[in-house]
Structures are given as structure tokens and as C-alpha cells.
Specification:
This protein has about 375 residues and is of the alpha+beta class. The chain has two domains: about 240 residues, no CATH class; about 140 residues, no CATH class. The chain is built from nine helices and 21 strands. The protein has an eight-stranded mixed β-sheet with strand order 5-4-3-2-6-7-12-8, sandwiched between helices. It is elongated, with a radius of gyration of 24 Å. The relative contact order is 0.11. The structure holds S-adenosylmethionine.
Length: about 375
């Protein structure tokens, strides 16, 4: 399993990752820089949150007036419904509140709302948040939360990664604007990738490299302890359908000839040409910065290209494994050869492969001749050439 898939599998068991305030601030500021009125008079819904712990709730409540919000709604998921309950503690705020109900505290979700000054200090901020128990457990798929979704203008959250395939269609059903965090691998899901292709979803402002650091409740899966808080790094990214400037910045690229002559990548430097796939009608471009700016045909690029995708510069044609871009060739017999060792299994899905003279380090297949497998590839075309 690749590292990304491993992370995916671990996250399927544990959805309790909490986003850092500074990451939210950095991302949200980019939308405001592009359009200072992006949140003006808007109802922002933060579903799948945990308002007592969540920095999303804190951030938007603190900036309520500066952003000109009409209403902020944040909802949480009941403890008993969570996959992973370790580390959960009833907050003092709830226990001490006169609304505390021991018959509901574990079974019901909560809703926090902010729209007016109730503290009487002349401003609307975090001190004016009002809360109550939801009727249900706060599942985003429940009619109670769907109603809130339909009433809102913008949906912002870090949703449970285990339900991401359902979460994005859930947003699209209501045709709302959104800013959400996803696991990087999610961009290849059949529910998500076509939306990239149609320019209905795109990368947020934060660069994909380095992933994101979250507070984790799983003490057995900690990468670093910072100020006594358990932190986990994951290949996470922001996705959105709200404009920000970075999306329209074309990639600075070299010609094919210059790439072959000056590339910093050993796979390109000094070669006579870019490799062609054996089973797709496209050339292999192993790095986004190695995309030749003068190639008219279809190019296979890594999924991280989507972080840099400028819709005025490139068109997304498809991806290996997708129906619209089927392989030109299927192999009736294929044997996996890993680091030169033949494997027993004759199955395994094949993405793009490159015909080679011999088997080397990495994943190869014997299809009657050696072919080298590459990671998932997205097919793109330069929009301004043909
Ligand atoms: C990745 S955490 C993020 C929490 C918070 N939004 C943040 O970023 O700090 C996702 C949250 O969604 C909750 N959750 C899991 N399944 C859910 C569901 N079906 N409906 C609503 N929330 C859910 C989890 O319990 C968890 O608290």
C-alpha cells in the first residue's frame, strides 16, 4: 500500500483530527484578500465540528463583525456516534451550564449559533454564541443538519475523512459554496475527480506540499508533541469552489528541449525525449514543474498537479482508471515484478505503464515484455497550443 493509502486506511478508523487556528486563518485570509466581501451578509455553516474544541468556531466567531457575517452556525456529532471516542471529555462549559442534560449529553449533537449581541457589550463575538442540544446526533446526513445546510450560504469544515465520498456530493446537492479539508488521495475518488475536470472544485490557497498538522486524540498515532498537545501530520489539502487569486496564476514552464537539457530531475535531464505510455496515448511527465510548455498532445502528470492547476493554462482530459479515458491496450497476462522479484499474484490494476528494456527497482509488470508502473496520472493538455 502506498503511504497515502495507508494514511487513508488509518483515518477510516479515526476521524478525530482537529484543525489548527493558524491553518484556518491562513486559508481563509486568501479568500478575503481576493474579495473582501466574500463573507458579507452570509450564513456560514460549520458542520462536523466540535464547537467546544473547534478552532473553526473560534475563528469565525472572533471575526464575525470584521467579516460582516449574517449568521454563524456550528454543529457537533454526538459522542456515542463517533467511531473513535478515546480522549473525549465532557467540557466544563457544558457541565456547568443550566442547559446540561445528562440524558442528551452523549447521544445528541449540539448546535452553536451566533447572530446578535446577547452579552450587551455592544459587539458580536464568541461571548454571544448560544447553544442547545440538537434533536438528533448531528450526523451531516440527517434531515436536521440538511435543513441547516439548505439555509446556509457557505459550508466550511474539516469533515470526517472516512465519509468524504459522501460529504462532497452532500454539499453539491445543495449547490452551496464551500471550503473544506480533504485527504490528498480523495482527489482521485470517482465522486471528486470529475468535479475538478469540470472546474466545479479546485485547490484552496494553502500549498499541498508538507500536508497539514492536526491535534489528534489517538495517543497511539502521534507524530510530534507540541506544547503538550499530540499532533499528527497528514497529506491533507484544502478544497473549495470559491475564487482566490492563486488559481489563475499560470505555471512558469520551460520548453521540452530546455527541460531535456536543463531539468533538475534525473528522469528528464539528458534524455532524448519524454517517455510515452505503452497503454495510454500520452507522454509521462513525472513532475509538475517538468511539464513542457510547447507540447500539444496529452500529458500524464502526478495528482499534485491539481495544486497548481490554472484553468486558463491547461485543460484536464481525464485520469487513468476513469471511463472517459480508457487505456489503448489491455494486457491479458500480467505478472507483477517488484524490485526485480516476480510476485505470485497475476492480478492487480494497472495504471499508466512505460515499456522498458529490463526490470529495475520499483514496480514493474511482465506483460510479455517489461513495463514500469507509475503512480496515478491525470491527463492534461495545454489550452493555448492546439
Ligand atoms: C476531522 S474531525 C474535524 C473536527 C473539526 N471540524 C476540526 O477541524 O477541528 C471530523 C469530525 O466529524 C465528526 N463526524 C464523524 N462522522 C460524522 C457524521 N456522520 N456527521 C457529522 N460529524 C461527523 C467526528 O466526530 C469529528 O469530530
Amino acid at each position: 500500500m502506498s503511504n497515502e493509502n495507508l494514511t487513508d486506511a488509518r483515518m477510516k478508523k479515526n476521524d478525530e483530527f482537529y484543525t489548527q487556528y493558524s491553518d484556518i486563518q491562513k486559508e481563509i485570509n486568501a479568500y478575503l484578500e481576493y474579495d473582501k466581501n466574500v463573507f458579507k451578509n452570509k450564513i456560514v455553516l460549520l458542520p462536523c465540528d466540535d464547537p467546544e474544541w473547534s478552532n473553526f468556531t473560534k475563528f469565525f466567531a472572533q471575526n464575525f463583525q470584521r467579516f460582516g457575517l449574517k449568521k454563524l452556525i456550528s454543529t457537533s456529532f454526538a459522542v456515542n456516534s463517533k467511531n473513535f471516542k478515546d480522549g473525549y471529555q465532557l467540557s466544563l462549559f457544558e457541565k456547568k451550564d443550566k442547559k446540561f442534560d445528562k440524558t442528551k449529553t452523549n447521544t445528541n449533537g449540539k448546535i452553536f449559533e451566533l447572530s446578535k449581541d446577547i452579552s450587551g457589550d455592544g459587539k458580536i463575538d464568541i461571548n454571544d454564541l448560544e447553544w442547545r442540544y440538537l434533536d438528533g446526533d448531528g450526523d451531516f446526513r440527517s434531515s436536521e443538519i440538511e435543513k441547516l445546510r439548505d439555509e446556509s450560504d457557505i459550508i466550511i469544515t474539516n469533515p470526517p475523512f472516512s465519509l468524504f465520498r459522501e460529504f462532497i456530493p452532500w454539499i453539491f446537492k445543495s449547490k452551496k459554496k464551500f471550503i473544506v479539508i480533504a485527504n490528498k488521495g480523495a482527489v482521485t475518488y470517482k465522486e471528486i475527480f470529475p468535479l475538478f475536470k469540470e472546474n466545479k472544485i479546485w485547490s484552496g490557497r494553502t500549498n499541498w506540499s508538507g500536508g497539514l498538522w492536526f491535534e489528534t486524540k489517538d495517543v497511539n498515532d502521534v507524530d510530534k508533541v507540541i506544547n503538550e498537545v499530540n499532533m499528527k501530520n497528514t497529506p491533507s489539502i484544502w478544497l473549495t469552489n470559491i475564487e482566490h487569486g492563486r488559481r489563475h496564476q499560470p505555471l512558469p514552464l520551460m520548453s521540452m528541449k530546455d527541460n531535456l537539457k536543463y531539468s533538475k530531475h534525473k528522469e528528464i535531464l539528458g534524455k532524448k525525449s519524454y517517455s510515452k505510455y505503452d497503454n495510454y496515448n500520452a507522454i509521462e511527465v513525472p513532475y509538475t514543474d517538468a511539464i513542457p510548455n510547447d507540447y500539444e498532445g496529452v500529458m500524464g502528470v502526478p495528482i499534485s498537479f491539481l495544486d497548481k492547476y490554472c484553468p486558463e493554462q491547461f485543460e484536464i482530459i481525464g485520469m487513468d482508471g476513469f471511463d472517459e479515458t480508457p487505456p489503448t491496450k489491455k494486457y491479458s497476462n500480467k505478472v507483477k515484478v517488484k524490485d526485480g522479484k516476480r510476485m505470485k499474484s497475476k492480478t492487480g490494476t494497472l495504471g499508466c505503464v512505460i515499456k522498458e528494456k529490463d526490470y529495475g527497482k520499483g514496480t514493474y509488470f511482465d506483460v510479455g515484455y517489461p513495463v514500469r508502473a507509475v503512480y496515478t496520472r491525470i491527463f492534461i493538455k495545454n489550452k493555448n497550443l492546439s
